[in-house]
Write a structure and sequence with these properties.
Blueprint (H helix, E strand, L loop, with lengths): L2 H10 L14 E8 L5 H13 L22 E3 L4 E4 L9 H11 L15 H10 L8 E10 L9 H15 L4 E5 L6 H13 L5 E3 L13 H18 L6 H25 L1
Parallel strand pairs: 1-3, 1-4, 4-5, 5-6
Antiparallel strand pairs: 2-3
Helix pairs in contact: 1-7, 2-7, 3-8, 4-8
Amino acid sequence: MDESKLRKCVQKFKLKDCNRGDHSYKRILLQLFGYTGHGKSAFINSCKYAIDGGKYEIYAKAEVNDGCVTRERRTYQLTPTITIVDNKGCTKLDHMEMLEIYAQLGNFLPVNEKVESKENYKDYASRLEDSELHPNDTDIVVPIFVYSAQKGLLDQEKPALKSFLQTCREITGIVPIVVLTFTRKFDKEMIKNWEQTFVQMGAESVLEVENYTEKDPTKERLLSFLKIIHLALENVQFCMERPKEPKKECIKNKKILLKLANEYYTTSNMG
């Protein structure tokens, strides 16, 4: 499918057009997550550029605040059905940061509001309960893990990251799409090794991109971003083939998060 046809396909996509209907879901959230400085905000700008097909603009900007980038769970609408979501980048992807991401993937945290870590189980559980005041159970979430090829992945990090990606899948019902950024300096063999590493950790789709910038707005790479968005829609369609009830999914995910949070905070207190 060429660039023009792929763009139209993405722009026209509606959840009700899935084979079994929309299961009462109304919106697709492409939830980005990953380390600080790995190009999530630039990826959003590139996706907007690819969808709009016009002039390159900066919508998402990585603003440094107390050593972190993007402290809010910010939304950027791509189409009437698809919204891409940025969040606070992780510094070390430890268990506490993982719990924050799980809460976002479960859609328990409100969008366009500040993201704050909770220091104890009681506060974490309370926030999950508070989410019932403003439920977001009509959003179906697609996890997208943005990872810079410039960061070396240590062998001792792989087991935790593998478990992390598996939990992301358990919560959303969709295997995280891995997007490799900053790949320009690496040869094809090195990039292939990166792809194989993530596949071994449970990823099914690993795609490389070179994000656009103000100084490099040429359109020649638009197709790569459209393919990622289209892949996300294909994953949604596959997920929607199974019976799904938004409210039951929400309850299931809350139980998963409470169990993980209890295990983490209990272990932390023992330490």
